[in-house]
Amino acid sequence: MRDVLRLVRRIGFSKTTYLEAIAVFTDGAGAVLNTVPLGFKLRDGYIVSRVFRGGRTFSIVVSGLARQGYICVTQNPKLFYLSLYEKDRAIQLLNTRRRGLCDARVEFSIEFTENHSSSVVIYLKPTAVAISRRIPRGFTRASASIIEALVWLTKIPYARGGRRKRIIEHVEHSLESVSRSSRSSVYRSIARKIREKMLELTKTG
Ligand SMILES: Cc1cc2nc3c(=O)[nH]c(=O)nc-3n(C[C@H](O)[C@H](O)[C@H](O)COP(=O)(O)O)c2cc1C
Does the reported pTM lie above 0.85? Predict the structure, then answer.
């Protein structure tokens, strides 16, 4: 357990700063129930995340269906996008266990939860860590900006009026950073999909 926690810290989980990663939740038999980007912090030896009401993750956690899973630590912005809006493709990819897709996988069991009116806080006990990337990956603004755009995008369904307008501006600014810092066709195609999704979300109210 100590060794697992030591590795978890080395990967970048900390008490002070959210680590944004992709959680894969499974039921007691190991069947995948959901993929979702979440922010994680360390608290008292647990990996902790606050899941807001309204989504699938909240339901499967509160109903007790989700029991365990793993966190895929990655900087791959496409995987973040898929885990939100094309979950079946994300699961298919993750199931291949392609080396390097996740820089690391942290297996967990949900130890306990704390219910609040608009959220549930989950306490995950890390049970095993597999690290697959040993070659350092440099920081790219494009990748960080895609993640930032996605964070704002996921807030759109819960906001109206002036707040929604400000959120849309945040998405636009983040996408501008992507186009300023990269000519990669992969990044551009995700940026295009994010714009399309934003239009769809704002049309449907
Ligand atoms: C990088 C990133 C981090 C996120 N962190 C959280 C979080 O900590 N808690 C949360 O409730 N939602 C978070 N979100 C938003 C959820 O991923 C989003 O609301 C998602 O649509 C919920 O999906 P679900 O319906 O499958 O649960 C985050 C999104 C991104 C892109």
Answer: yes
Q: Is the pLDDT of residue 205 over 70?
A: no
**pLDDT tens, 45-78?**
999 999 999 999 999 999 999 999 999 999 999 9
Pocket test for ligand 1, best of 18, 36, 150, 156 (most atoms within 8 A of CB): 36
For ligand 1, say whether the CB of 36 is within 6 Å of any of its atoms.
Answer: yes
Determine the residue of 52, 87, 174 to mutate for testing ligand 1's pocket, defined as the one with the most ligand atoms within 8 A of the Cβ atom. 52
Mark residue 125 as left, alpha or beta (left: phi above 0; alpha: psi -120 to 50; beta: remaining): beta
User: Residue 51 carries which side chain, given as an amino acid letter?
Assistant: V
Q: What is the pLDDT of residues 191-200, one digit of tens each?
A: 999 999 999 9
How many angstroms separate the CA atoms of 8 and 131, rounded? 10
Residue nearest to atom 9 of ligand 1 (CA): 51
CA dihedral of 29, 33, 35, 40, whole degrees rounded to 10: -70
Predicted local distance difference test score (pLDDT) of residue 40: 97
